[in-house]
Design brief:
The chain is α+β, with helices and mostly antiparallel strands and about 325 residues long. The chain is built from ten helices and 15 strands. α6 packs antiparallel against α9 and α6 packs across α10.
């Protein structure tokens, strides 16, 4: 731990002031090294109050997606987030992890902005600097591919649980994987899997999540503005991105453990409670073209596929790779 990190750690733990002499004694650094560390922290956006005769006190931390800030809120996790890599900018956090063949199971990458963020069907995901959480996790589950389709739905439930913990809001889920608030999209989720060609064994699974935190309506492009929202817009106040990122890593760690155990009942029930489509008439939009179909969404099955009833009265199951679902009049309604 360098002097900057060590000083920050002690200032976080102390409610009052710590003198430069006491910081120097506890850390084994010179007074000059302590002063330089405080100066460096201030330049990074930390508000550190200094009073003659009392010393230093941390009064405010920046809303920064850095490892020290996220870890200051992060509890103990079994796998997800044990290795945490933070960047000011990446083309895509998913692309970054896919380029790291030796990264261990559970490695998380977080970026303050993305220049080429992507969603499903290769759609662009707007990732402006300082306004969202752009986070991906590399998983290496010792499971066959047919055990992995629920991963994206588990991520959706995890996002909702993290937002509820930190913000007190209760997001819904638009099938198959979009957390929503007030009928608009709050978050995008993209899962990409790599298989070994000869054996079909899963080499890695990269789970990418982008949460809209601080965007105002004018920060979205006109076409996105119609369907997207942010936590700032809903709450009317800022939300700590490092606190939310830490909560998300903890929730993903819980979900990953459930996947490995094969015990998904809790997540199936949570998904059904949050699914905003159930009991409503929806549009089924086939990927690759074709006529839209109107149906009633009845249930979500054990694989998180959607059970629908067509206009002819027949029930069938549709999967996330086959169709997109929209409301009759808008994104969810």
């Amino acid at each position: 731990m360098n002097s900057r990190e060590a000083v920050l750690t002690l200032l976080r733990k102390e409610e009052g002031f710590l003198s430069g002499q006491e910081l120097s004694r506890r850390l084994g650094f010179s007074r000059a090294a302590v002063w330089k560390a405080v100066d460096a922290l201030r330049r990074e956006g930390y508000e550190i109050e200094a009073r003659t005769g009392l010393g230093y006190r941390l009064s405010a931390a920046p809303d920064a997606l850095t490892e020290p800030e996220i870890r200051s809120f992060l509890g103990e996790t079994a796998v997800v987030g044990r290795e945490l890599r933070c960047f000011e900018e990446l083309d895509s956090t998913n692309n970054y992890l896919k380029s790291q063949p030796d990264a261990p199971d559970g490695t998380a990458a977080v970026a303050d902005s993305q220049t080429a963020g992507r969603g499903r069907m290769d759609r662009s995901f707007q990732s402006p600097k300082g306004q969202g959480i752009y986070l991906s996790v590399l998983l290496r589950p010792p499971l066959p591919p047919d055990r992995l389709p629920p991963v994206t739905a588990l991520a959706g439930v995890s996002v909702c649980a993290a937002v509820e913990r930190v913000c007190g809001l209760c997001p819904g889920l638009k099938w198959p994987n979009d957390p929503v608030l007030n009928g608009k999209k709050l978050c995008g989720i993209l899962t990409e899997m790599s298989l070994e060609a000869e054996t079909g064994r899963v080499q890695s699974l990269v789970l990418g999540i982008g949460i809209n935190v601080g965007q105002r309506p004018e920060d979205f492009s006109p076409e996105v503005r119609e369907v997207a929202t942010s936590l700032l817009q809903v709450l009317g106040r800022p939300v700590s991105r490092p606190r939310l990122a830490a909560a998300l890593l903890e929730e993903l760690d819980r979900a990953y453990a459930a996947l490995l155990r094969g015990d998904l009942l809790e997540y199936q029930e949570a998904y059904r409670r949050r699914c905003v489509n159930l009991g409503k008439t929806v549009q089924l939009i086939p990927f690759g073209g074709g006529a839209r179909e109107t149906a009633r969404a009845l249930d979500v099955d054990g694989e998180f596929s959607l059970v629908v009833q067509g206009e002819d009265g027949r029930e069938r199951t549709v999967r996330s790779g086959e169709v997109s679902v929209r409301g009759l009049w808008g994104y969810t309604e």
